[in-house]
Design brief:
The mean pLDDT is 93. It contains three helices and ten strands; from the N terminus they run ββαββββααββββ. The protein has a four-stranded mixed beta sheet, covered by helices on one side. A two-stranded antiparallel ribbon has the order 5-6. The chain has a two-stranded antiparallel sheet with strand order 7-8. A hairpin with a 6-residue loop joins β9 and β10. The longest helix has 10 residues.
């Protein structure tokens, strides 16, 4: 039996970033890679041209002011998916892809009957950016509801899990 073909790295060149920042500022990315899985990051890091190049991680673009074209390799995080992982006596553990819209996650949890994030509704950006920014509103910070995140180290390509303390 033949091994499945490895999907090639999808690199877009000279891409307008106007649609990827909330101010709609005109800027071009020299190279843009859409990240939809851990494997995409590992393929990028293995690429002889782009693997060691400086990188800019882009989520929803709500905290980004582009003043010029972007020379770094832009990693457009588009990891999707939302699911209930575990039910505990004191909490529901929900997993969401870093490319999901933050407000979409909040709405989804409410639709599933899983309250607790509603104070954080309507905050722009992505799920992946939320822990880095420790978003907060109306007396609630994400740190109050955060369990952990899974990521890929952009230098080594190894998967890492960071808990709330990290």
């Amino acid at each position: 039996m033949q091994a499945p073909a490895v999907e090639p790295l999808r690199v877009e060149r000279h891409v307008s970033l106007r649609a990827y920042n909330t101010f709609g500022l005109p800027a071009l990315a020299r190279a843009l890679v859409r990240i939809t899985s851990d494997a995409d990051v590992r393929r990028l890091l293995a690429d002889p041209e782009l693997g060691r190049a400086p990188k800019l991680v882009l989520g929803g673009g709500s905290n980004l002011v582009l003043t010029r074209d972007v020379a770094q390799v832009v990693l457009k995080v588009e990891v999707r998916g939302m699911r209930l992982v575990e039910t505990r006596d004191d909490a529901w553990i929900v997993e969401a892809g870093g490319g999901e819209g933050w407000h979409d996650l909040v709405a989804w949890t409410l639709d599933q009957g899983l309250p607790g994030l509603e104070n954080l509704a309507l905050i722009p950006g992505t799920v992946g950016a939320a822990p880095v920014q420790n978003i907060g509103a109306y007396g609630l910070d994400l740190a109050d509801r955060f369990e952990s995140l899974d990521a890929v180290d952009l230098v080594t390509g190894r998967g890492v899990t960071l808990d709330a303390a990290a």
